Amino acid sequence: MKRISFFFVAFLFSFPIFAAQNIDFVDIGELDRTIVFDIRYATPNNFTGKIIYPAARCLLRRDAAIRLLNVQEKLEKKGYRLIVFDCYRPLSVQKRFWEIMPDERYVADPSKGSRHNRGAAVDVSLADAEGKPLPMPTEYDDFSEKANRGYKGASPEALKNSAILETAMKEEGFEPFPTEWWHFDAPGWDQYPVSDFPLKRAAGCED
Length: 207
Ligand SMILES: [Zn+2]
Hints:
two-stranded antiparallel ribbon; 7 strands; binds zinc ion; Muramoyl-pentapeptide Carboxypeptidase, domain 2; five-stranded mixed beta sheet
């Protein structure tokens, strides 16, 4: 009986501490209706050619989510919107990616864990005010040097859009990933633990 009460008390206390550090996971789709969702791994339109996620959801650690919502708010004032391709990715999905492409240039080794497995990384792009995707240097998940942030061979319009996105993300503390124009890490991303809970459909969501 004493054992049960101890665990019960520990259970109760774990929640406020967890929330206070803003490391709990939140669903961007429940907090914002203006970000454009194009969760590629919930469709066959990704490098695997298969539907990997059972739900097109963007879950992030609360601190990263707040920052992303701030980016969206600032971009909206300038006539743009964020497009989100990928957020939290379960570790078991990372293992599947690794089976398909065991090359660290393109896919993070699951024994180390991807930044996305920690829930503090986002893959994003830029749309106009109507949600139409704007030209960017490459397609998403283009595994070539053309996706590098230093690559200057893209059209001036694409380079400008990429710079607008990067500036907006950096202003909210996100760190741009050098070899992928779409990838950004929230501050302290490496302090979050790797997670592996499944990405399920939201409760009450029928589509
Ligand atoms: Zn990424």
